[in-house]
Amino acid sequence: MKFYDAHNHLQDDRFAGRQAELVAASRAAGVARMVVNGSCEEDWPQVSGLAREFPDLVVPSFGYHPWFVGERTPRWREALVEFLDRTPGAVVGEIGLDRWKPGLSCDGQEEVFLAQLRLAAERNLAASIHCLQTWGRLLELLRTTPRPARGFLLHSYGGPAEMVPPLAKLGAHFGFPGYFMHDRKARQREAFKLVPADRLLIETDAPDQLLPDAANLHPLTDARTGRALNHPANLPDVYQFMADLRGEPLTTLAAQVEESFRRLFGAARAVDTGGPTLTIPLMSNDIIYPRSARETMAGWAYLPRFVDKIRLHLAGKLHTDYQENFAHKGFDAKWLQTAGLTAEQFIAVVKDTVTDAQVCDWVAKNVKKSAEEKAAFNQAVLNYGRENDPAVKARLQMRKEQSGLGHRDDLQCFVDYIDADEKRI
Q1: Above 60 in pLDDT, residue 283?
Q2: Among 363, 366, 365, 352, which residue's Cα sits nearest to residue 300?
């Protein structure tokens, strides 16, 4: 049985360099993947390093936690974009609002939160949202701000039970932490009885949110202070508690959570080859899917997808569904035209490289386009189908109907449709 941790902070300094030991224990306990959330510019490099060291396990997440927004630099958003661009599989978080922590200033919280939420929406990346004692305001902002089409996580959801349905309607997934196993957290547990099965996720929030002593099978302490820490290997015990709470077998719960986790955060694609980290497209039956058009490389949306298509073409494995438009039509041709390259030139570049990093370096060096030109291309691709062109909208609806997705009103553009057709959302 596999377990998926929707939110932790494996990079936390309180673990004092014991990350490899924690990962080994977590793997032994059955933990298959974990979302490791950054909190500020200072710890984003540590999150990135863990993703490189444990690519099959760690989903890297970069964001500004509301507790630390006062420490942000003038270039904080540019730095965030850079980490998202250069880290395969990265998502956004931990972000959010906090009116609970004593002495914490509210200045800048909404501005920083909304900037990060919009960034996640533009790229359709999962976002992990922190909220304490400001649920009404969060709901207002979520209703009026673009959100990721794939959804978002309400980390350690502690809001009112009656807010579960409207939040779920907006795309929320709800993270249940082991801390809610304590007797005093009965109100929070009641809310989770209303969470739809396909929106439930389980988390540890390690090193925080300790389980009750009786359930803490992996005791751990901070070497500097002697205080107890939560171990990420405690995750299976949180699963068992939730299965009992909902009155269903652990195997049923685990299978549903795995499906929800993959839908929100994506399937694992990175593998350790003993050399450079490679990115592998998703597979379904006999089709190998290239990456989502929302993923970026060197500041360009769609480029990782095009690179995947070229590699599959060179290997003789590009499915016939993709061959008609390959390199000479559609978004392939649009990127080549914007970059000022021919199909033959760029295919040769990809053929002579092994890793994404090598392609990225070549593009950064040889494709001299301004940030404005890149942004215009990205918006054109990511919003194609949203514009008020009846012919384009009709073609999008026809494609949805052909793929059995005609009922999906949430698919508002061609990139949404592609992600759904390739089973990402």
Answers
A1: no
A2: 363
Confidence of residue 268 (pLDDT cuts 50, 70, 90): low
Q: Which domain holds residue 179?
A: 3-270
Looking at the fold, whether 34 and 121 belong to one and the same domain comes out as: yes
Which pLDDT score is estimated for 275?
Answer: 38
* Helix (H) / strand (E) containing 308: helix 303-314
In a domain, 396, yes or no: no
Domain count, the chain: 2
- Tell me, what's the pLDDT at 180? 98
Based on the domain organization, do 189 and 309 belong to the same domain? no
**138 & 183 share domain:** yes
pLDDT tens-digit readout, 40-62: 999 999 999 999 999 999 999 99
Residues 96, 99, 101, 104: is their CA dihedral positive or negative?
positive
Which residues fall within 8 angstroms of residue 101, CB to CB, at 6 or more apart?
A: 67, 132
* pLDDT digits 0-9 by tens, 304-349: 999 999 999 998 889 988 998 899 999 999 999 999 999 999 999 9
Residue 275 lies in a domain: no
**Judgement on whether residues 202 and 333 belong to the same structural domain of the protein:** no
Judgement on whether residues 60 and 35 belong to the same structural domain of the protein: yes
Q: Is the pTM of this model over 0.70?
A: no
Identify whether residues 73 and 96 lie together within a single domain. Answer: yes
Q: How far is CA 267 from CA 83, 259, 352, in A?
A: 20, 10, 28
135-163 pLDDT tens trace: 999 999 999 999 998 999 999 999 999 99
Contact call for residues 205 and 7 (beta carbons, < 8 A): yes
d(CA 338, CA 335): 5
Q: What CATH number does the domain containing 90 carry?
A: 3.20.20.140
Does residue 79 sit within a domain?
yes
188, 288: one domain: no
Report residue 69 CA to chain centroid gap: 21
294 contacts 124 by C-beta, under 8 angstroms: yes
DSSP code, position 247: T
* 24 and 89 assigned to the same domain: yes
Within a domain: residue 391? no
318 phi-psi bin (left φ>0, alpha ψ -120 to 50, beta other) = beta
pLDDT over 70 (residue 301): yes
Average pLDDT, the chain: 92
